[in-house]
Structure formats: structure tokens, C-alpha cells
Amino acid sequence: MSGFTLSGGLAFSGGFTFTEAPVENTAAWFGGGQYNPPGGRSTVQRITFATDTNNASVRGPLSLARGSLAAAGNTTDGWFGGGDIPGVVSTVDRITFATDTATASVRGPLSQARYMLAAAGNYTDGWFGGGQGPQSMVNRITYATDTATASVRGPLSLARYFPAATGNQTDAWFGAGQTPGPVSTVDRITYANDTATASVRGPLSSARYRLAAAGNSTDGWYTGGVGSTTVDRITYATDTATSSVRGPLSAARQYSAAAGNSTDGWFGGGYGGFSTVQRITWATDTNIASVRGPLSVSGGLMAAAGGIQ
């Protein structure tokens, strides 16, 4: 029997086996962060992609106020790990998207307290890499057993903090950061052999840190950083080449967060009072990013999950 696809989104093939087609999220959740002047935040804000010119909806909160955290997720939940303010924590909060007005569920923890890290994942696991120290550690959180201590994987090719990460169903790319100076290195972690040292890829078009990243199944976009409006696109299939410069953002920003789906990425917040959300449409990524949002409050050092590919 030749294969065919049912209208309900199920792919059916010979031998009477079927797989459910990937489901995309319709919103992104931005959690935690730091006020200007400094002070931790437990707020979770939801941006609905279809109505992204409206103010973000306040959800959550996280179990404790914090900034400099990282997030990864799948189509049903997001995991927000690590962070600081007032002290460094190893806490992992799980936000179930369908009930996002409840306080986040405390899971984890990470293998050690840390902050200024980044995360990416697929449908079953999330990888949290880097951190202040600097650190090269990568922790893997398996979503089905997320009450256990995160598994230590990796490491990254060099110790770094303030990187950004994006990925697809097979790999994650951790780009840039401080070591203590800014770097342009991109590390690729292949999920199937994540105990090996990450493969050095890239680089980005310039050395930078405090940036944000989002992507789809074929490419990742790394945006902003200290004093930068640059948008770099990394095509996963050719990730040893220098990334293609795209964008730019509408203004230079740092300490922002990002999430996206198969067609667009949303980059929100930033240090210096930014409440703006910018949407980058992947198919037209050489244009200046479209200003959307805003978030309900301004500030940086937050994390975002949603729209996993």
C-alpha cells in the first residue's frame, strides 16, 4: 500500500503504521527577567503569535523571582532553568502551556546552581549549556523524568557565559558568549551522542555576547548582543561556514529572549528599558525586523520557550 496522509494530520504508510505530524505552538512564553533598576521578576508573559501587536498576556508566575535564566520546551510545556537574583539557583520550573495561569511547577534541579546560560531542545529533552564561571557544562533534562537531577553531558568546546542557543530535533547550536572576552564560536551538540565534546562550527559574523536566538527545523537566527543590531543566520546543513548577516533589528539591544515557529521568530525585551517585541519573518530576513508587542513590562535577562520544531 502506498503511503498517504489523513486530513487529521496523521501520516499513514504501508504496513499499517502511522506517525502523528509535528504540531506547532501558537504562542511563546517569556519568563523571569530583571527590572531596571535591578530586581528579580517571576512574571511569565504569553505572546500569541496570531495577535502579536497586542500587549503580552501576564501568566505564571515562576516559583521564584530571578533573571539570567534559560528555557527550552516542546509543544505542551516549557522548562525554565537556573538564574540568579538575589542568589544563584539550580531550580527548574515547568510551565504547562494549557494551564499557564497557575504557579510554575518546581522540577529538576540542574546539577549545580548557575546563571547566564542558554538552552535548546526537542520534543523529549532540553539541553542547558554554559553559564557564569565561565562554564562548559551541559545539563540534559529529560521531560518525562523532570523531577530527577539533570544529567551532566557535553561539555561545550570552551567555557563561556551569556551564549545563545537554538536547535531542531537532532542537534542544538550554542553560539557566542564571553570567555571572559566575547567570542564568535558556535558549538553543535548532537543529541544522540551528547556526552562527547561539542563540535565547533560557525563562526558568527562577529564576536559578541548577551544575544538571543531562535530558529526552525533548517536554520537558526542569532540576534543582537552588546551594542549590536546584527542578525546572523546559521543554516544547519552548512554550519561550518561563517553565518550569513541578516536583519538588522530595529535597535541595538542585549539581554533579550527569543522563541519562534516554522515561519517567524519573536525577540522580546532587553536591557535599558526595552518592552518591544520584534518579529523576524524567516522568508524575508534581510529586512529590518518588524516591531510587535509590547511586553507588559520592560527589562532584560529573561528566557523564552515555545514554538518547538
Description:
By secondary structure, the protein is mainly beta. The chain has one domain (26-305): Neuraminidase (6 Propeller). 0% of the residues lie in helices and 36% in strands. It has strands spanning 4-5, 10-13, 17-20, 27-31, 44-48, 57-59, 70-73, 77-81, 92-96, 105-107, 118-121, 125-129, 138-142, 151-153, 164-167, 171-175, 186-190, 199-201, 212-215, 219-223, 231-235, 244-246, 257-260, 264-268, 277-281, 290-292, 303-305. The chain has a 4-stranded antiparallel beta sheet with strand order 6-5-4-27, with no helix packed on it. A 4-stranded antiparallel beta sheet has the order 7-8-9-10, with no helix packed on it. A 4-stranded antiparallel beta sheet has the order 11-12-13-14, with no helix packed on it. A hairpin with an 8-residue loop joins strand 12 and strand 13. The two termini are 29 Å apart.
